[in-house]
Each structure stands twice: as C-alpha cells, then as structure tokens.
Hints:
CATH class of the domain at 89-181 and 189-220: Alpha Beta
Amino acid sequence: MLRSVATHLELGLSGTSKLIFSVAAAKGSPIRSETLTITVDGATVEPQEVVDVHGSRLHTLAATGSELVLDYQAEIDGIADAPVVAEIDEIVYARPSRYCESDSLAPTAASQFSGLTNQNLLRAVISWVNEQLAYVAGSSLPTDGAVRTLLARQGVCRDFAHLSIALLRALNVPARLAAVYAPGLSPMEYHAVAEAFVDNAWWVVDATQLAPRQSLLRISTGRDAADTAFLTNFGAPTTLNNLQVTAVVDNFELDNPALLTQLR
Length: 264
C-alpha cells in the first residue's frame, strides 16, 4: 500500500510566537520520501523535531514576522507495525480527560451498552454514536467536549471520537484519540478517530464512517484533541489564513464497519 500525503499551511503572525506543528507521519511509518519546509516572510527556517512516547513528531520553532508558510509532503510505502501495547497506557487512557468526560457519561454508557464486552462493545459504540450524531461542519466549538456533543447531537470528526472515547472509558475500556491523514475522506481535511484497547490490542473506532480505516495514516496520539492539535501557539496571536490537506492511496478499499482493524 502506497499512501501520499501533504499539508500546505499559511499563518498570519502578529509578533513572536512559539509554534508547534503536528503534521508529519508518526515515527515508525515506513516513509519512502518526505520533505518539510517552513518559511517566515520568505526566509527558510529550521524547526526542531521532538518525538513523544507514541511516535508523534512535533516540529517546533520561535517565529517573528508577518507570514509563515509550511509545506509537508510524504510517501508512505507499506504499513507500520501494530500499535505498541504499554502497561501505562491502560491506566492513562482509562481516566477522564479534558474533552472526554467519561465520569459524567457513565450512566449513559451503562444504560446503552449493559452486558456488552470486547469486540461486540466496540461495534455497538460505533453504531450508536453514528446514529446519535449528525456530521455538521463548523457545528462545534474548540472547547466542546463529549457531554456537550451528545446534548447537541451533532459535531465533526473530533466530536464523534471524543464521545466514543468517553463512552468506552466509562465502561473501563482504555481509549485514546489519533489524528490521521485519511485517504477517501470528503471533504479532505485532517481526521480524528478513536482507538480502543480490547483483547490486548488497539483497534480503530471511527463512528463517522467517512473514510476507510485500512488506509488511515497516524500523525499523533493522545488523550484527546488537547494532545493532538495540528498547531499549538504560545505567544502572540496567529491567524490561520489557508490550510490544504491531501491524502491518497494507490489501492483504495471500501470499509466494512463490522470488521475490526488497527491503525497502521
């Protein structure tokens, strides 16, 4: 499987900012070729790469100027190894987090999924969240969590993922969020999916059902969107003036939601 992905990003700067980009394919991806170029007011700058415990590759820099442009391109030839299973993850990803209020949703999870376990539970959560929420672009705020999403009955991919994660954690199933490139997604954008720890492995949970899970490419992994944002800014305000994301695969497959798959 050959996947080709790219990001073009333009930022307006208003002063000195420490910027952190999370747009590169995660460490461990079988990268055939890759380029990352960042310019500030036309001059090339070199970011520092920082890799977290899950292989998320963060590119950081301090920028002063008026316009920043980032271009990233990569070809991924093949699939990565299965997601690593770490004992600490079973603790961290079973706890409530900023956008996944599993403690608040425990009664809902118990009433809707009583008696279900393992793979049957994952399928039920995917189906239920898909039925309860409408995918509506621009319908949620950056501060919305799983509880508000459920009350609103609509959201975007991160909202679907947050609600899925919160419900699973409420039933003592460790779950986390992954930001991905998603060949087949329309409209094309960064995508967010959940991963659930069942039968000693991490499985993709995507209640949006908008892209085939087999060709998803991991960018970053964390408790929720607070850990996986494509851009983090500490400093002067910035303006996102343009964002273009592309992701294609040479062997496109239709997805079967009844089958479980891993993010590789």
